[in-house]
Fold this sequence. Notes:
The chain has 129 residues and is mainly alpha-helical. It has one domain (20-126). Helix content is 51%, strand content 8%. The protein has five helices and two strands. The protein has helices spanning 12-48, 70-73, 93-100, 109-114, 116-126; strands at residues 76-80, 83-87. A two-stranded antiparallel sheet has the order 1-2. A hairpin with a 2-residue loop joins β1 and β2. It is rod-shaped and about 100 Å long. The two termini are 45 Å apart.
Amino acid sequence: MSKGEITCTIDLANWKNQINKSAADKRKALDNTIRTVGKRLYKKIVDYTPVGDPSLWEYPHAPAGYVPGSLKAAWTISEEAGYTVIQNPLPYALRVEYGWSTQAPEGMMRRAIEEYPILVKRAATEFKL
């Protein structure tokens, strides 16, 4: 080294490991955020789902075999091919979603989805994204 020369040595392997660890930590935080938002959205949908009250119906009698709370209990959440899927297989779920119920005139899913940005922000903050 000659007089006045400056030398800098960088440990590239260590630097690469630090970057990879940081990226892995962010991927984990993102995965946790996505799962948490899906679960919280699911909970909101279930919470917003009405339990049938025959006294509010146009014809105040329940159909044969009707069990109050069936719609609420039928919601499922699953992960399929990288997607969180929330669904309700009951044939009247769509009707209730779109105004058939005076107890949930703005639906269950649509109401919960309005809160989606808040759920994402909270989870992202929680997992330090």
